[in-house]
Amino acid sequence: MSKQETDGDFSGEHVVVTGGGSGIGAEIALAFRRCGATVTVMGRNESRLKAFASDNDVEYAIVDVTDESSVKSAFSSAVARSSAVSILVNNAGIAEAKPFTKCDSAFWQKTIATNLNGVFHCTAEVVPSMLEARHGRIINIASTAAKTGYAYVSAYCASKHGVLGLTRSLALEFARSGITVNAICPGYTDTDIVARSIEKISAATGRSEEEALAELLKSNPQGRLISPQEVANTALWLARKQSESVTGQAIAVAGGEIM
Asked: Which of 154, 172, 62, 170 is nearest to 115 (CA)?
């Protein structure tokens, strides 16, 4: 069972955050570490992960979530260094816009392999020990694109819809096993990914970056970017002992964009 004894205390928990070296993943890792959890961040950029781990008293492991053998190796080493994973945050993902007529098979497969298959591979590594312990939290960082469609990101939308379908199915399958499975669906968030998107929009349209940002913000009724900390706070809430009845949910953190 969970060793959480007080609200917000995650001592005794081993949290793995994929895509944990920057952006939303980094904020989630920091939030859990501040609450006493043992944290392992995973990703592909070793230099970035190593620096982040050193600066923030967390462990790290190199992983390519599209490669099943890489995932098995990373989780095996993380468990050996710490303990069985009790909280998994599937955050690793890619987002690239492209008209459907320019989406070749390689682009499609890469998006699905990273955003959907990666969630499957990582989740498969932690479920057996969670079932044995009768305790676990699986938190999938999806997107508002898991709940609605957007033009020019068909592969991304399809992959995130898949993540939400997997989330809901596993939530029912494990409902009596002490495991909850939920998705967080952020809107446009103040991260490097969005910054790069703004640069691409500006380059493609001739608009200034300020104008490109304003165009993105039209979808958010609050007229602002979501902060990574807001997503991290939602992850903490979902992981709490007191949230054990919350499962199978797709929680939008998007300023009212999706209801």
From this structure: 154
The CB density around residue 23, as the number of other CB atoms within 10 Å, is 20
Q: Which of 60, 150, 156, 188 is catalytic?
A: 156
Three-class DSSP category at 62: strand
What is the per-residue pLDDT across 90-143, written as a single tens digit (0 to 9) for each?
999 999 989 999 999 999 999 999 999 999 999 999 999 999 999 999 999 999
Q: Which residue is associated with the tokens 């392999």? A: 113
Which three-class secondary structure state does DSSP give residue 56?
helix
Residue linked to tokens 């970017």: 225
State the Cα torsion 159-174-133-128 to the nearest 10°.
-50
List beta partners, residue 61: 42
Q: Is 16 helix (H, G, I), strand (E, B) or coil?
A: strand
Distance CA 155, CA 95 (A): 9
Q: Which pair of structure tokens corresponds to residue 161? A: 């819809």
From the number of C-beta atoms within 10 Å of its C-beta (0-12, 13-18, 19+), residue 223 rates as exposed
Describe the strand order of the beta sheet including 14-18 as a list of residue ranges.
59-62, 38-43, 14-18, 87-90, 136-141, 179-186, 250-253
Q: Is the pLDDT of residue 5 over 70?
A: no
Is 108:155 a contact under the CB 8 Å cutoff?
yes
Tokens of 240: 């709490």
Q: Is 156 a catalytic residue?
A: yes
Global pTM reads: 0.92
Task: Write out the two tokens for 217.
Answer: 């913000």
Q: Between vectors from CA 111 to CA 125 and to CA 96, what angle results, nearest 5°? A: 135
d(CA 179, CA 187): 26
